[in-house]
Amino acid sequence: MSHTAHIRSHRKPRRSASRVAMRAGVAGGVLGTLAVAGTSTSSANAAEPVTQTLELPTLTSDLAAQVAQSAEATEQAAANYRLGAERDAAAANAAKQAKADLADAKKKAEAARKKAEAARKKAADAARKAAAERASRTAERPTLTASASTGGTSTSVSASTGSAAAVISFAKAQVGKAYVLGASGPSAYDCSGLTQAAFKQVGISLPRVSQNQSTAGTQVSLSNLQPGDILYWGGAGSAYHVGIYVGNGMFVGAQNPSTGVVERPLSYDPPSGAVRVL
């Protein structure tokens, strides 16, 4: 016996050929089964329709920003459209109102024109009437060719007839009577009381006070006086004294308590103006 006979060999024991063949057969059978199964699967897959699934792109932050921007632009466009429509409506309303205002202004202007025309016509009629009345009074008073100088003012001298003669006759008849404030005859007068009483003789009712008598008739120039005109001292409507022009540069008036009713030349106390009521 070898001195190493009791030591096992470190090599693995050889596999038997039959065992290897058996394992090869099993492996072949498995592979064959897999091949058949694969063939069957391929056939089944070939028979079924192929369905393909498409994936939509993911909504990234950039794409979301673009969508938001587009929506904002659309909203802004809509707002601009509304604003334009409102402006157009406002312009239309303004034009309509302007047209109405223009029509109203034309209507008012036409009314004002008619009113002014009526006033002008009325004034012209009054002027013609006043001229006719003056012409009528002048016809009753034939003008003499003589003239009198009164303190540098040339005053025409007229023959007093009709109503003027009656007024003058009454006024001269009162010369020498007393002056009493507020008196209107028959024994005493103040200035306006005398003129009122004189014109009452011919049916003319004068206001009581000097201020009103100074505007009771037509204003006349002192250079164109006629007998029977009322003279006044002070302003028209604010006169403080009145008298009666009796012709030939003379007047009769109730002057003051010291003189009473007197007949004086115009130069004695030149009047401020005169009115004609006859």
Structure characteristics:
about 280 residues, endopeptidase fold (from Nostoc punctiforme), 6-stranded antiparallel sheet, rod-shaped, 10 strands, two-stranded antiparallel sheet
Task: Give structural notes.
With 278 residues, the chain is an alpha+beta fold. Among the domains are: 86-140; 143-276, endopeptidase domain like (from Nostoc punctiforme) (endopeptidase fold (from Nostoc punctiforme)), CATH 3.90.1720.10. The protein is built from 5 helices and 10 strands. The chain has helices at 17-47, 61-140, 162-173, 191-200, 210-213; strands at 143-150, 153-158, 178-179, 188-189, 218-220, 230-233, 241-247, 250-256, 260-265, 273-276. The protein has a 6-stranded antiparallel sheet with strand order 5-10-6-7-8-9. A two-stranded antiparallel sheet has the order 1-2. Strands 3-4 form a two-stranded parallel ribbon. Strand 8 (250-256) and strand 9 form a beta hairpin. Helix 3 crosses helix 4 (191-200). It is rod-shaped and about 130 Å long. The termini are far apart.
